[in-house]
């Protein structure tokens, strides 16, 4: 039975790629078990949906590796009251995970075809707390700021200033920063300032990673 196979594969993805690498947060694991990853993978690659690597989704873009999705989600420390900005909708898979664990997700994608495809899949899965925009997400989404959490799923060469500005106090930004070939995944926490600056930043390095490039004004 098809559905059966997919459930089995999701559970081995979770145990072999995510729990084994140290992510044991029950809400992250439960959400990853619920969201049907195969729906976000192009039909011709569907048999690889649960493989331990990113997959092409067209337009030179990728759906992130399952472990990286789990790690970013865990690092965000989401609460169900939160408002989240996602830069880089891509396939919409990470968007679905965010929507399960927060109140509202504002997701920006620069490639119209990817945004439309993700939107139609997410609507078919009945998510009604996701708001979509086609534009350069490195400038954020001022109309809906500030956000409790911001996640950038494309590699930046620097931290886009507008994203820090649009983050609530004690908010968290997860972003890969580095060169095209190799980035470091950072968690930045916006803190009260103890100097003349408007805020402080606590910086944690999570892992090395390789994302497709963030393309935009503040990228
Ligand atoms: N989380 C997505 C990752 C997709 S890859 C997934 O797992 O499917 C990163 C995406 O970021 C690509 O779709 C790319 O087009 C998009 N992107 C790159 N620069 C961007 C920008 N400045 N604003 C919005 N989206 C951007």
CATH C-level category: Alpha Beta
Q: Please provide the ordered H/E string of secondary-structure elements.
A: HHEEHEHEHEEHEEE
Largest sheet: 7 strands, mixed
How many DSSP H or I helices?
A: 6
Gross geometry: globular
Please give the oligomerization state of what you see.
single chain
Helix content: 25-40%
Bound ligands, named by name, code or SMILES:
S-adenosyl-L-homocysteine
- CATH third-level topology: Rossmann fold
Spatial order of strands in the largest sheet: 5-4-3-6-7-8-9
Instruction: Look at the structure and give the mean pLDDT.
Output: 96
Count of all domains = 1
Strand pairing plus helix content: what structural class?
Answer: alpha/beta
Q: Segments where pLDDT lies below 50 for 5+ residues? A: none
Report the β-strand fraction as a percent range.
25-35%
N-end to C-end Cα span = 45 Å
The radius of gyration over CA amounts to 17 Å
CATH superfamily: Vaccinia Virus protein VP39
The CATH architecture is 3-Layer(aba) Sandwich
**Count of DSSP E strands?**
9
């Amino acid at each position: 039975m098809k559905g059966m196979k997919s459930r089995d594969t999701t559970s081995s993805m979770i145990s072999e790629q995510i729990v084994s690498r140290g992510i044991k947060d029950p809400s992250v694991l439960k959400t990853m078990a619920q969201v049907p990853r195969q729906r976000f993978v192009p039909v011709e690659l569907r048999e690889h949906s649960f493989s331990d690597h990113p997959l092409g989704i067209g337009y030179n873009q990728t759906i992130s590796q399952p472990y990286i999705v789990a790690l970013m989600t865990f690092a965000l420390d989401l609460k169900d009251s939160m408002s989240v900005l996602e830069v880089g909708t891509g396939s919409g898979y990470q968007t679905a995970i965010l929507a399960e664990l927060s109140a509202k997700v504002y997701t920006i994608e620069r490639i119209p075809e990817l945004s439309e495809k993700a939107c139609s899949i997410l609507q078919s899965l009945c998510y009604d707390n996701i708001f979509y925009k086609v534009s350069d997400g490195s400038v954020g989404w001022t109309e809906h700021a500030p956000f409790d959490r911001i996640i950038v799923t494309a590699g930046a060469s620097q931290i886009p200033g507008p994203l820090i500005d649009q983050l609530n106090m004690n908010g968290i930004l997860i972003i890969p920063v580095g060169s095209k070939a190799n980035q470091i995944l950072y968690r930045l926490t916006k803190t009260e300032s103890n100097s003349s600056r408007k805020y402080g930043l606590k910086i944690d390095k999570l892992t090395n990673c390789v994302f497709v490039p963030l393309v935009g004004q503040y990228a």
